Structures are given as C-alpha cells and as structure tokens.
C-alpha cells in the first residue's frame, strides 16, 4: 500500500519521517513549516486520494491540528465512506495540547486509551482512521511506538534510531533535566545548519540526506560523543553523505564546497523547477544562496533565460540572462537589477509549489481575451 507522510518542518517532524522511512517504504514526504498550511495541503491530498484507484495510507506526524485541518479530517472520513472496495488509511500522530482543545471544540473530544497513561484518541466512525494525541511524547517517539499502524518491516539501524529518538524527545519536550538534553540541543543545531540550505524539500535526495545525517548523529550520541564532539564531527558526516550521493555524478568536483558540488546536481533536476508558459522556470522555497548557484548553472546550460524562486512568505527572486528579471519583478510590485530582481505575491504567501505556480502564472502570462489576436478585434472598439 502506497504511503505518503505529511510532517512538521522541524527536528521532531524530520525525526518522525526518519523513523517512518526506517520502518516502511515511504513514497513521498511533505514537510510543512506552518500549521496554517496543513489544512490546504491536506485538502490537496484528500482530492488526490478521492481519484486514486488503489487504497493508500496517509501518515500525519507532529502537526498542530487547526480548524481547517480538522474539517479536512471529516472530509477524509466522508470520502472513505463513499469509497467502494478497499478503504484508504489515515494515521495521525500528534502531541500538541492545542490539537486536543480544537478537537474538543469541534465535537471530537479525545478520549483516554485504555492502559496507556497520557494517550488519547478521537473517533471518526471509521476503523481506517487512527488519531492519537500524547502530550508526554514527541512525535518521533510516537512514530516508533505506533509503527504497527503503517510499518512493513522491522526498523533498520534500531540502536542508532533509539539514540536519536531519545535526544529528540528530550529536546522537543524541553526536558532539561534529562542527560540526553545536551545531545538533543547539538542535534537540533546540526539539523538547522543543514536541513534546507543544501538539498531543498521536493528533491528526491532531500529526506534521504537529512535522515542519513540524523542517524549518523544518533550513532555518535550512542557511542558517547559530547555535544562539542558531535558538532566537530558534523562536517565530516555531511561530507561522507554527499560523497555517497554524488558517487555517480558525471560532473562532481570534490575540491569544491558542499553547496557548489550539490548545485550542479540540483541544476539537472526536473522536480525542483516547473516551466511556465513563457519558458520561465519556477522553484519553490529554495535557500537563497543555493538558488543563486543553481539558477546560474541552469541558465548557463541553456535550459531557460529566466528563473524565479518563490518563498513561503510570498517573496519572489528573479534571475535572467536577457534582462527580463526586472520586467518580471515589476509585475509583482518589485524592482532591482535587470538580471537580478525581486517582488512579492499579492496574497502575501504561498503554501506549496502548485500554489506558487497558480499565483505567478496568470500574472506573468495573462490569458488573452478570445479573439484578441484577430485582425478585426481592434475594430470592435473603433469609434470612427
């Protein structure tokens, strides 16, 4: 059964996706930085699953459940009731007190699970939907504890996973008295130093890279490394992971920095950049430094003459080789240089690549009225 995971964009969210990948073949992982974005992203998945012929599993971890998301959970249940044949499965593992409050206000008050202190669940009237809330556990630990809900095999590297989980749990629940807390702090710093600025979400290597980094750090913590030792080891760990990723790359140059080496591989990606109608390539959420290096390589290779990167906060960065970056930025209340300029979305934010395209495309390439290309179209407004 195909498995998709939607998880938070922090250490605990990535810890949960690392555990899931160790226990099952995860087809796709969607990382969500803002709880307000969970609702629309979940709605997109429900629409996709409504059309899916085969049954799938959707795993949601470490996501605060706001009103729009809970409405989506109800729509999932309604969709599943109408489905003929095998039903989709939904597993929601959360640990936020605010989620329990929201569920209660909307008539889905979480109830205690027998013989499991601190664990609560909400009933959607569908045996294929499991929603658990445990305020005494981080989502990473919950994913391991409830692996039977989605797992297909025993977890790999169990000892390294256990050390990582212990560190994440101490850090995420702010258990300063725990001996694992200093290691959790070091793990969190390593995560934020490397998670999104090198291989961005959406690229096939992204979760593989971050999970490898977290597991390697977990191994060092298991071996007794201090936070300072782990910090010193982090660069070497990262280099070894990148060496493995680029082992078959035709243009890798190991003398270059990690960012420059990865930029060559990212520039070849067909998943990070989507073509718009005028040939502009659009990316979503790329680190600004990486976007600069990748866009240069894309345009040097002749793939396009203009590239735009849209951030979740609604800012746009245009790069070009034909002086049109500024033209694009002006359409979005922006400015800058002719080949390097920026602007801002009218809505103020974007929650996904598809949403970014939906907002940028009609501004860059507005639809022409029917018949506007006709030589007789101008006569309609002629006053004579």
Main-sheet strand order equals 2-1-3-4-7-6-5
CA radius of gyration: 23 Å
The average pLDDT value, as a whole number, equals: 91
Fraction of helical residues: 40-55%
The total count of helices amounts to 13
Class per helix and strand makeup: alpha/beta
Question: Could you list the spans in which at least 5 consecutive residues all have pLDDT below 50?
Answer: 375-384
Task: Give the ordered list of helices and strands.
Answer: EHEHEHEHEEEHHHHHHEEHEEHEEH
Distance between the termini: 68 Å
CATH architect. name of the domain at 2-156 = 3-Layer(aba) Sandwich
Could you name the CATH class of the domain at 2-156? Answer: Alpha Beta
What would the principal axes of the Cα set say about the shape? globular
- Identify the quaternary structure here: single chain
Strand portion, in percent?
A: 15-25%
InterPro entries: DHH_sf
Protein name: Oligoribonuclease NrnB/cAMP/cGMP phosphodiesterase (DHH superfamily)
């Amino acid at each position: 059964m195909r498995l998709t995971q939607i998880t938070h964009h922090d250490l605990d969210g990535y810890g949960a996706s690392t555990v899931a990948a160790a226990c099952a073949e995860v087809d796709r992982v969607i990382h969500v930085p803002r709880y307000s974005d969970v609702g629309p992203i979940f709605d997109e998945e429900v629409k996709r699953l409504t059309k899916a012929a085969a049954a799938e599993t959707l795993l949601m971890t470490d996501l605060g459940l706001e009103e729009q998301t809970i409405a989506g959970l109800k729509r999932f249940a309604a969709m599943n009731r109408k489905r003929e044949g095998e039903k989709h499965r939904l597993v929601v593992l959360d640990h936020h007190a605010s989620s329990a409050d929201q569920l209660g206000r909307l008539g889905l008050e979480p109830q205690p699970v027998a013989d499991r202190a601190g664990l609560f669940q909400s009933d959607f009237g569908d045996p294929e939907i499991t929603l658990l809330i445990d305020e005494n556990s981080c989502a990473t630990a919950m994913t391991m504890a409830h692996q039977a809900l989605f797992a297909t095999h025993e977890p790999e590297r169990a000892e390294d996973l256990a050390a990582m989980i212990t560190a994440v749990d101490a850090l995420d629940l702010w258990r300063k008295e725990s001996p694992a807390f200093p290691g959790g702090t070091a793990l969190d710093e390593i995560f934020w130093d490397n998670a999104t600025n090198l291989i961005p979400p959406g690229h096939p290597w992204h979760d593989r890279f971050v999970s490898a980094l977290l597991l390697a750090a977990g191994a060092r913590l298991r071996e007794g490394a201090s936070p300072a030792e782990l910090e010193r080891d982090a660069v070497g760990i990262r280099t070894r992971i990148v060496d493995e990723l680029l082992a078959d790359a035709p243009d890798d140059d190991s003398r270059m920095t990690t960012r420059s080496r990865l930029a060559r591989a990212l520039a070849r990606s067909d998943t990070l950049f989507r073509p718009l109608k005028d040939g502009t390539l659009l990316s979503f959420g790329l680190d600004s430094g990486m976007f600069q290096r990748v866009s240069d390589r894309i345009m040097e290779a002749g793939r396009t003459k203009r590239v735009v990167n849209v951030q979740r906060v609604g800012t746009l960065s245009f790069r070009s080789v034909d002086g049109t970056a500024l033209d694009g930025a002006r359409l979005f209340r922006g400015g800058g240089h002719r080949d390097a300029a920026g602007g801002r979305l009218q809505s103020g934010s974007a929650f996904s690549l598809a949403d970014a395209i939906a907002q940028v495309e009609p501004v860059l390439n507005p639809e022409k009225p029917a018949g506007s290309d006709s030589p007789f179209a101008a006569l309609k407004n002629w006053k004579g």
